[in-house]
Amino acid sequence: MSGQNFFWARNLKFLRERKQLTQDQLSVKLEISRANLQAYESGATKNPPFDVQVRVSDFFKISIDSLVRIDMSKLGELKLRDLEAGNDVYTAGKKLRVLATTVTPDNKEQIELVTHKAKAGYAAGYGDPDYISSLPVFHMPQLPKDKKFRMFPISGDSMLPVPEGSYVIVEYVQDWNLVKDGTPCVVITKNEGIVFKIVNNRIKEDRSLALISLNPLYKPYDLPIREVIEIWRYHSYWTDGKLYPHFNKDQVLLAIDELRKKIE
Asked: Torsions phi, psi of 94, nearest 5?
């Protein structure tokens, strides 16, 4: 494991002992061999498989990011219980998410455009200043100056009336806990790439987001919070190519309410 994963081995042993489990008992619960568990705890195995990290995270109810980046032995019991309850420092946007961004020569925030071509690489390059600076940029003075915006392309028809090929303008969400149910968001995920959905916040209940499409042909599904990289709150959208305003936020939310009524 690299230096940024320094606390994984120490935390695994600490959390096991905190639950008063032997290595034999924990290895059975995690469905791994005792020899492997011993190697993980001692640091002899530097890169535990991702599925093992997920099992450990699910069992102890603590995110992988916290397991590898926070020294659990330095935390008090109340803070540990707070993490187990889902009030993770990383869902609150601290330490982990340092947003790479671009500014004008006079230090004004620009809006980066993630093109269709760049979309596939965004989940890997989102934190790389060189990657972000390679994206086309715009400056829209009508947008709030105290918030960070970005533009993402939309594929498919799952979020009609926002048509395929549009670009949505979205506001960066630093604290994921504050996302309200029914909020349209662009969610950057580890395995699914960029998705645009209505979000219901389930972080405190089961550390997940419920993602819902406006198009009823697409079924809602749950996304574990550990799969989330970034969340961007919907503001408005522009049609691809012609770049003129279409539906604003209030119109889209009205369309959501009307669709819900029809479904009910």
From this structure: -95, 145
* 214 touches 198 (CB < 8 A): yes
DSSP states of 186-238:
EEEETTTEEEEEEEEEEHHHHSEEEEE-SSTTSPPEEEEGGGEEEEEEEEEEE
For residue 148, give both structure tokens. Answer: 């960070």
- Residue type (1 letter), 159: M
Question: What pTM did the predictor assign?
Answer: 0.58
Query: In whole angstroms, what is the distance from residue 91 CA to residue 219 CA?
Result: 26
Mean pLDDT computed over 201-215: 90
Tens of pLDDT along 180-199? 999 999 999 988 889 999 99
Dist. CA 95–CA 90, nearest whole Å: 7
* Spatial distance between the Cα atoms of 208 and 223, rounded to a whole number of angstroms: 5
Nearest residue to 84 via CA among 96, 94, 72: 72
pLDDT in tens, 11-46: 999 999 999 999 999 999 999 999 999 999 998 887
* CA 221/CA 181 separation, integer angstroms: 14
CB of 257 closer than 8 Å to CB of 249: no
Query: Between these two residues, 71 and 18, which has the higher pLDDT value?
Result: 18
